[in-house]
Design goal:
This protein is mainly β and 146 residues long. The protein is built from three helices and six strands. Strands 1-3-2-6 form a four-stranded antiparallel sheet, with no helix packed on it. The chain has a two-stranded antiparallel ribbon with strand order 4-5. The longest helix is centred in the middle third of the chain and has 8 residues.
């Protein structure tokens, strides 16, 4: 049996808070079989439910709960960028979401390091009539946080 030479720094880490979470609508298509580690985690931000059936996160000071997903293939970002209507060459205002780095935490504010996250501008959230989720948890499948 071969030993894996994958180091933590070789992983692409993405914090997900919506349809890419385990058990949600896009997990199977985009993440299943590709994720090598999934940890419940949270980040600082504001979470909104959008009427289209998925959430948006903006910068902020509350906790947004989700998962830190780790992938070995950096090509996953191109697939997720397409899902999130993000193109690095476009201005942020031309993208639905922007891909940024954010510090990710576990219980007691233990840092798990930095990961990619997809953020939406507050202006766009307001255009879509997003509904603030003060508990920082979104689900489309009824999965509870605990």
């Amino acid at each position: 049996m071969l030993e894996s030479n994958i180091k933590f720094s070789d992983l692409v880490q993405v914090f997900v808070y919506g349809t890419l979470k385990p058990g949600e609508a896009n997990y199977k298509r985009f993440c299943a079989g590709k994720v090598v580690d999934a940890k419940k985690a949270f980040v600082k931000g504001e979470l909104f439910a959008l009427p289209m059936g998925y959430p948006a996160m903006t910068p902020g000071d509350n906790q947004v709960h989700g998962y830190l997903l780790s992938f070995t293939n950096p090509g996953i970002l191109k697939q997720l960028d397409a899902l999130e209507d993000y193109h690095p060459a476009r201005q942020d205002s031309e993208n639905l979401y922007s891909r940024k780095t954010i510090e990710v935490y576990q219980e007691e504010w233990l840092s798990l390091g930095w990961a990619w996250v997809y953020l939406m501008s507050l202006e766009r959230v307001n255009q879509f009539a997003g509904i603030h989720q003060p508990d920082g948890w979104w689900t489309g499948s009824g999965i509870t946080r605990k």
